[in-house]
Design brief:
Maltoporin, Chain A; mainly beta; 22-stranded antiparallel barrel
Length: 630
Amino acid sequence: MKICKGIIVCLLLAGMPQTCAKAEQHHEETVLSAESNSQQEVYLDKIIITNRRTATGLGEATENIAVLEEGQIEDLPVSTLSDALSYIPAVGIEPRQGFGKASSISIQGSVSRQIRVMIDGIPLNSQVLTHVNPAVLPVEDIDRIEVIKGAASSMWGSALGGVVNVITKDTGKTLVPKGSFTTSFAGFKTQKENFDVSGKAGRVGYYLFSSYMESGGRGPKDDVLEKKAFTKLSYDLKEAGSIIVSFGYSAAQVNSGEYPADSIFRFQEQPYRVRYGKIGWEGDWADSEIKVDLKHSRQEYITKSYLSLFDEAPASRVEVRDRAYQLSMNSATHLRGKDLLVLGVDFDCDTIKSTYLLKAKNVKLQAPYANYTLKLEPWDFNLGLRYDRNSEFGDQTSPAVGVVYHFSNFPETSARVNISHAFNAPPLIWKYYEENLSGITTNPDIKPERAWVYETGLESKPIDKIWIKFSLYRSDVSDAINLTQNGLGQYYMKNFEKFRRQGVELESNINIIKGLYFDVAAAFNDVEDRATGQTVRGGVGPRQSFNVGIEYKNENGFKSSLIGYYNRWNNPPDTQPNDRKMLADAKISQQIKNTTLFLSVHNLTNSKYWSDYFFPIPERYFEGGVSFNW
């Protein structure tokens, strides 16, 4: 626990805690057109924070980055964070099983544990399984979602496949409170209510959010009861900066529904409780923006497996508890009036308890990092470096170099190249668990995956009404981890010599006429074991994906959207995939003064679809509701 004491000492020495809210204030100051909810509008002028951990322009990014903003989320048929992510091209979400059900994220052929998921920069990746279920985070309190498609270890450490950072809404700015209340009803006896309010009293700004959802599901043992809340407070210290405090809570009772007849178990209960938050201070000192954050997350997951629908006691019970603290200190300095130097350090202290472990395990991490952006018009150069020292998996150095060229003869056109070294620490449970997991055994020699990643892309708005983006990537992964079998017939996670991931992505947005937009995107990923030349299957995301969408909005408050998406998952034949078909969702809404009526249709084509026959998506269902704003 020495590092935990060190965190407290560092916090006291820092004087005050801090947050990244200043970047959100910069985001609010970004000038957008009246129809800025559409992606093509002033796209390169958007402000982001995830790639540099301070406010920067999206047009300066050498990484492949996607941004989904609050207005876009409201216009889409979105009920969960998984829904929102599934509409981002080249981001694969394992087929959804219904309201509140778990799903996993894949970016560029990566597995879910290789994606770092955060809310306001608070990491949620558990050291037990390392992947994050998007269902634990609410979608209604989101200001924007920032996604780095590809390696991000030079700033975030263990992030070989990418980063998803959910940025919550800011505290209010007005004395008179503003807020909303939304209620909706959907198929499978589903109802959902959410409420939020924001304002400012004196120097104190506030934002409060809560939601409640229950669903009867498709059949016996398929119900969900979910409660979520989030609070953010800010205190203006005037010339001394500001203090931001936030706290989030998410809890649910999730039942999996009846499993197929050939399953060992008939159904599972999977209750969870997740708490997260931070306290931070930010201010200016010696021409630098200084930020200090003390972050915390506590996650509890239980899986109860039953042999019969009528059993009262589970045949198996697995419990996992993860408690994490992180101290982040960061400074951003503008040099020559336009260059940017970012220096910082992360200290992590993570404790895990599980029925798989005889005693608790601790993971400690120290990671200094530096990033420099040099602007020599029409060029933007970026150099990044991070050093991670992990008490369980040793030292990792993650350099990155990138360049963006802005074509002066073609407005809003740029080309980018980025080369980086990335890594991903494996779940600690694979190294230490003492309980036998149905024929799976431990591997005490397992090592982090390491990769050289090469990316290039072109983004352009060749004419006023068309925006296009083209990206290529290749990732050479050493010590790649995958499931294999030993001589005793036991399965275990093993480091392989080298996997190669490569792919291509194309996006386009066309403004057909005023208020009418058409989107189309395609992505292809290939993961190959270089030693055997065989395609790697299972858990590596879609091999092919296509997105098609059309959106219409007018000045009278009417909006409509139709989204189609096709994912051919790379799962092995024994999962009996039924995934080679297009799915579609739709939403219409009408705003009447401060009231908005909406209706969504999910799985419009009523397709029978699954990547794994254990987890089919629901048949077509409707969701309708009303939202009141003041």
